[in-house]
């Protein structure tokens, strides 16, 4: 007599479903953790960009003996230079002081002397960078639409050293 063993090679449907559920849970956690870290990194990067541009503009104002300024909106900012008696917006795609728009999902709140700035359409800067090295004191708070607990703050003082 011959004994025949019946064996089945492969996985059962239940085993495959359990593995798929485990993989989907792991991917969900990975996506959530990367999502906030990426957003926090973007906020930090935008704050650093503005800080660097302000320092550079202040140095430019001192070296060129010209008055500069910056105007903020909730979704970006623009640099100005005083020519004659009028403020002229700095434009040009290749210019380092070109108008900047914040990435989608990031906004800013601006405060002068602790008071929030009301956004206007005029072509006047709200923060001045003077040729003497002085600057209008201000505070800019970068925050995310999706997570208002993620905030980065940039403080401008009266003078840069």
Task: Report on this structure.
With 161 residues, this protein is α+β, with helices and mostly antiparallel strands. The protein has a single domain, classed as 3-Layer(bab) Sandwich (minor pseudopilin epsh fold), CATH 3.55.40. Helix content is 32%, strand content 28%. Strands 1, 2, 3, 4 and 7 form a five-stranded antiparallel sheet that branches. Strands 6-5-8-9 form a four-stranded antiparallel sheet, with helices on one face. The chain is elongated, with a radius of gyration of 27 Å.
Number of helices: 1
CATH class: Alpha Beta
Give me the count of strands: 9
Query: How many discrete domains?
Result: 1
**Largest β sheet strand count, sense and barrel closure:** 5 strands, antiparallel
Annotated CATH topology: minor pseudopilin epsh fold
First-last Cα distance: 98 Å
Could you give the order of the helices and strands? HEEEEEEEEE
């Amino acid at each position: 007599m011959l004994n025949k063993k019946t064996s089945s090679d492969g996985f059962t449907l239940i085993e495959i479903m359990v593995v798929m559920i485990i993989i989907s849970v792991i991917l969900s956690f990975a996506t959530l953790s990367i999502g906030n870290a990426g957003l926090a990194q973007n906020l930090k990067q935008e704050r650093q960009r503005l800080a660097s541009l302000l320092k550079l503009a202040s140095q430019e104002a001192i070296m060129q003996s010209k008055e500069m300024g910056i105007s903020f909106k909730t979704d970006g900012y623009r640099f100005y230079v005083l020519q004659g008696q009028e403020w002229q917006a700095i434009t040009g795609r290749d210019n380092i002081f070109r108008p900047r728009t914040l990435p989608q999902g990031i906004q800013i709140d601006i405060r002068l002397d602790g008071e929030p700035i009301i956004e206007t359409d005029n072509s006047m800067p709200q923060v001045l960078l003077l040729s003497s090295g002085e600057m209008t004191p201000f505070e800019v708070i970068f925050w995310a639409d999706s997570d208002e607990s993620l905030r980065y703050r940039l403080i401008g003082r009266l003078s840069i050293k």
